[in-house]
Specification:
It comes from Riccia sorocarpa. Keywords: Chloroplast, Membrane, Plastid, Transferase, Transit peptide, Transmembrane, Transmembrane helix. Belongs to the UbiA prenyltransferase family. It is a multi-pass membrane protein. This protein has 467 residues and is of the alpha+beta class. 57% of the residues lie in helices and 12% in strands. The protein has 2 domains: 3-172, no CATH class; 181-466, Farnesyl Diphosphate Synthase, CATH 1.10.600. It contains 17 helices and 7 strands. Helix 9 (256-277) runs antiparallel to helix 10 (279-297), helix 10 runs antiparallel to helix 11 (307-333) and helix 15 (384-408) runs antiparallel to helix 16. The longest helix is centred in the last third of the chain and has 27 residues, at 307-333. It is globular, with a radius of gyration of 25 Å.
Length: 467
């Protein structure tokens, strides 16, 4: 795979730059980027870390700077990199995510912000499928252009500044990956939708003074989310080295002791926020959720080893505890007693089934590592194809049930929206299942299918306030 296979560089985030001595003219960026590739006529999205060269001295080959997914910065430092600094890159050459092939690179040059650009150049850029650039040239690497700004491009910093800057940037990236962003999105969207639904049911009670309390509640939920996914990474480090080597503990970007400090801090902060803001019932439910997250991952119980207890825990936390807890806390903050509304009964039942689907499909990309470590999941026991169809079937029943509820109880729901939205989502689900089957359940196809399941999950909560 080389850069000629790239159809879209969706994101390119510079982590930091390095300058190779003694010439000082060879600048390399350590970057994280997301590429959409075409493999066997299927669109595959992959996130990569690597060394991206932006200039080279004469008689120096860039092919020696191959990236390592686990820790690209350490690979470069071992080759004698001495100066590290953060800076806005004046030009970027995008290379292969896995190996550097200078003949297959495109040179992207960021021009001054006040430059309007030439339509033909920008058109060529768009035709190459490259975004977030001002101009593009297809010329291969060669001698870097003479410039008096080399010193400005990579200013030398003293060793303490280098160490602090490098540590902060590396920890920030590792911490974000440690929190598992797709689960954070689910928590934020779900909690926001439940609060919005409670407010729309009682618009006369909306009071902006309550906003700080709502934000504290959201922070507590994110802390709980981080604790659960974090403790799972600590105890799954061996499995993750096979299944998810990009996770920070498995990759070595975050030590186990640092991970423990984070999960303990997140749990303490979350419980403290809930206990001081939301009363004994919500505090008890929150603590129970943390307990379930612990016994899911931590020996001797480690219930994730067993398929049925594992999906029951996920369904309980994502289905009942989140929906009931957030809705109850919101009504209590508004001065109202708890009352089940049709929409909350619907979303609680719907998401509980949905969380069950997530629980059984989340292991689809992990079959290899789970078999190696004797983790019993539905995917390892029944096979990827059967579990994919089982998950799709359960979700399809969920959508049919939602359509039936809208038809039978038009007074309780926005019937037109509920029928149309769930019919469309059901059709999209059937199509995505067909795509996975056509891809012969390749690793990339399975990963795309699982991401699609999460996107359906987000969509359901986005619809909730309007149902």
């Amino acid at each position: 795979m080389d850069f000629r296979d790239c159809r879209l560089v969706a994101k390119l985030r510079i982590l930091y730059s390095v300058t190779v001595e003694p010439s000082g003219r060879f600048v390399v960026l350590i970057a994280k980027w997301t590429s959409r590739l075409t493999e066997r006529n299927k669109q595959v999205t992959s996130s990569c870390y690597g060394a991206v060269a932006i200039a080279q001295p004469p008689q120096t080959t860039t092919t020696s700077l191959t990236s390592t997914a686990a820790s690209p910065q350490s690979a470069l430092i071992r080759r004698g990199i001495q100066h590290v600094s953060k800076f806005p890159a004046p030009q970027i050459n995008c290379g292969s995510p896995h190996s550097f092939n200078r003949n297959s690179c495109r040179r992207l040059r960021s021009l001054p912000s006040n430059w309007a650009g030439d339509s033909s150049v920008l058109g060529a850029c768009r035709n190459e499928g490259v975004v977030r650039c001002s101009a593009v040239s297809t010329e291969p690497f060669g001698e870097p252009e003479s410039s008096s700004s080399d010193a400005e491009v990579a200013p030398e910093l003293d060793s303490k500044q280098v160490l602090v800057g490098n540590t902060i940037v590396s920890f920030k990236d590792a911490f974000w990956r440690f929190l598992r962003p797709h689960t954070i999105r689910g928590t934020v969207i779900g909690a926001s939708a439940l609060v919005a639904r409670a407010l729309l049911e009682n618009p006369q009670l909306i009071n902006w003074i309550l906003l700080p309390k709502a934000l504290r509640g959201l922070l507590a939920l994110l802390c709980g989310n981080g604790y659960i996914v974090g403790i799972n990474q600590i105890y799954d480090v061996g499995i993750d080295k096979v299944n998810k080597p990009f996770l920070p503990v498995a990759a070595g970007d975050l030590s186990v002791s640092a991970a423990w400090a984070l999960v303990i801090g997140l749990a303490a902060l979350g419980v403290g926020i809930v206990a001081t803001n939301f009363g004994p019932l919500i505090t008890s439910l929150y603590s129970f959720g943390l307990f379930l997250g612990a016994i899911y991952s931590v020996p001797p119980l480690r219930l994730k080893r067993f398929a049925v207890p594992a999906f029951l825990i996920i369904a309980t936390v994502r289905g009942f505890l989140l929906n009931f807890g957030v809705y109850y806390a919101t009504r209590a903050a508004l001065g109202l007693s708890y009352q089940w509304s049709p929409s909350i009964v619907f979303i609680t039942c719907f998401v509980t089934v949905f969380a069950t689907v997530i629980a059984i499909t989340k292991d689809l990309p992990d079959v290899e590592g789970d078999k190696k470590y004797n983790i019993s999941t539905f995917a390892t026991r029944l096979g990827v194809r059967k579990i994919s169809f089982l998950g799709s079937g359960l979700l399809l029943m969920n959508y049919i049930g939602a359509i039936g509820a809208a038809i039978l109880m038009p007074q309780a729901f926005n019937r037109n929206l509920m029928v149309a939205a769930h019919a469309a989502l059901g059709v999209a689900l059937v199509y995505q299942t067909w795509v996975l089957d056509s891809a012969k359940y390749s690793k990339e196809g399975i990963a795309g299918f699982y991401r699609f399941i999460w996107n359906l999950f987000y969509t359901q909560y986005v619809l909730l306030p309007f149902l």
